[in-house]
Amino acid sequence: MSSVVYYRFLHQKVRSVIHFDGTSISVFDLKREIIIANQLGSGVDFNLKLYHSENPSLEYELDTDIIPRSTYVLVKRSPSHTRGGRFNNASRYVSGKPRIKRVPMASAATTAPTVGAVADENMSEEDRIKMMFADQSNAWASAQDELAQHKVIHYSHAAPGAAAAGGARKDDIPPPGYICYRCGKKDHWMKNCPSIADPNFENKKILRTTGIPKSLLRTINKDDFNEDNLTKNENGELFDKDGNAILVTEDGDYAIAVADSKTWKTYQEKQQNAAAKQKREFDNKIIACVEQDKKLQFLDPLQPEPTLLRTPIVTTPCCPTPDKVNKLKNIYYHQPDLEQTLIENDFTCPNCGAEDIFIDSLVPAPQLESDLAHYIDEKQKELDIADPASRKRERDDSPDPDDPDSKRAKGDDYPMNNMPFMPFPMFMPPPPPQYK
């Protein structure tokens, strides 16, 4: 009659069945059948464990344990590992025999002292304790007798250079590309570094170039490498006179990291293009409002497309008022643009054609600048928009929260009065000027 045992891997939801003859099956045979049924291979690279379904933390540890039929067990497959000096895997379930835990035979002379007396049921608690300590003393004495027969092997670290004097070993020659990160050289292991025996050696911490692209490294010629120009911080790291950290490459050469100027330039261009786009969108909204309100005095007459006037705003002495508009739609100009236009047209007024309009005779228009600024502020509130240029100026003028000097108030530039318990400062800046 065929019997069954149900099993399920921990990562599965559906349980499987193993058929066998008899009323029970051993742990060894069940593991073998599970490996064969699931085609798990030779079992060299994994280990197989069985657990009780009622108590998943309780394992079937011995291969000779018997599992009754119709039992439900849990199966766990884990990577193979080394335990007790031998490789522990599931290969024995495929090609081996069950593991039997054997007790090694010991010599009579060695085991005789370790045999303790049999405790009597009528012994008192104090006698039992004395007998326990006596057994421990006997066990320690037998262990000492056994250790006395072992050969003593003394181990001592060889001094630098001793291996070469007494015969070089293969592991004393470092492979190509190895670098001693204690001194930065390549001809010895770090454990054999000559600086270990040097009491005056300063342990200089040389950083590695791990993770830094070679295109961002600049190699330093060792002939030009002057250690007198180097400084060392509290962590022992080396820096040159410009503050660059000294790195050592995989070839043993010294190098410093350079800035990624190409990426930084690309980032700056993207930021400038985004800011210019925002400014252009803002100006287009204001220009649409200017044209709708017919305030043409706010537009630049020298530009082919509608453009807001920029400060400083000036006008020519021949056309001081808006009723002098002739060729252009406006008599107010951006001063640098008007100066360039006058130079290119032999100092002729672009509106009325008057000659000898020199640059030093231009008339400022502060009232129009004030009206334009007030108009833009009103439209910002009305349209709920903000000028990107003004936001940038606010960021530039705002104090840096990480800068301790920016956190001080303006009045903190001068010292406060000394408290009675405070020592008088050795140096004080001059007092603030007194205005009458």
Automatic annotation (TrEMBL):
Protein name: DWNN domain-containing protein
Residues covered by the DWNN domain: 5-79
The entry's keywords: Metal-binding, Nucleus, Zinc, Zinc-finger
One cellular-component annotation, GO: nucleus
Highest taxon in the source lineage: Eukaryota
Compartments it resides in: Nucleus
One MF term in the entry's GO annotations: nucleic acid binding
Residue ranges with Basic and acidic residues bias: 379-413
Gene3D superfamilies (UniProt xref): Phosphatidylinositol 3-kinase Catalytic Subunit, Chain A, domain 1, Zinc finger, CCHC-type
Skewed-composition ranges (Pro residues): 422-436
CCHC-type domain location: 180-195
GO biological process: mRNA processing; protein ubiquitination; ubiquitin-dependent protein catabolic process
SUPFAM superfamilies: Retrovirus zinc finger-like domains
Region span, Disordered: 379-436
Annotated Pfam families: DWNN, zf-CCHC
Main location: nucleus
Database matches in InterPro entries: DWNN_domain, RBBP6, Znf_CCHC, Znf_CCHC_sf
